[in-house]
Design goal:
single chain, Aspartate Aminotransferase, domain 1, 6 strands, 131 residues, six-stranded antiparallel sheet, alpha+beta
Length: 131
């Protein structure tokens, strides 16, 4: 695991750390070719420079976000508030809320369904589908 991501996880309270450790392990296992790093203060995984999945601590818990998650058409993933992008997320307050089958399916979709966030600035905020 990336040392910076492990350091991020280690700064969390015990229950949140357990969630973060489980998420990072599963993401690394199911997206082995993804680059991962701390980006905008949160752990994020990239494929070919395009952000795919990440998580971060919010007041309500640990938010797992998929940049192209709206296109997954998954009931449990909540679309982002702005509505301008294709992101969707789920919130966890305990590691036992993480359903491994759901997570595996979402991670597969994050590889198969991608919107081009890498070039969003160059395209002046317009998203284009990559896959």
């Amino acid at each position: 695991m990336n040392n910076d991501i492990q350091a991020y996880n280690d700064t969390q309270l015990p229950a949140e750390k357990e969630i973060c450790d489980l998420l990072s392990q599963e993401i690394n296992r199911h997206l082995p070719k993804a680059e991962n790093k701390i980006w905008h203060a949160h752990p994020v995984w990239f494929l070919d420079g395009n952000p795919i999945v990440g998580y971060g601590k919010l007041k309500a818990g640990i938010q797992l976000m998929f940049w192209s998650g709206v296109s997954f058409e998954e009931e449990l993933l909540i679309p982002g508030k702005s509505g301008k992008f294709k992101d969707a997320s789920v919130m966890y307050t305990s590691s036992n809320q993480i359903n491994p089958k759901d997570l595996k399916r979402w991670l597969k979709k994050s590889n198969d369904i991608q919107w081009d966030y890498k070039n969003i600035v160059k395209r002046k905020g317009k998203l284009e589908r990559l896959k």
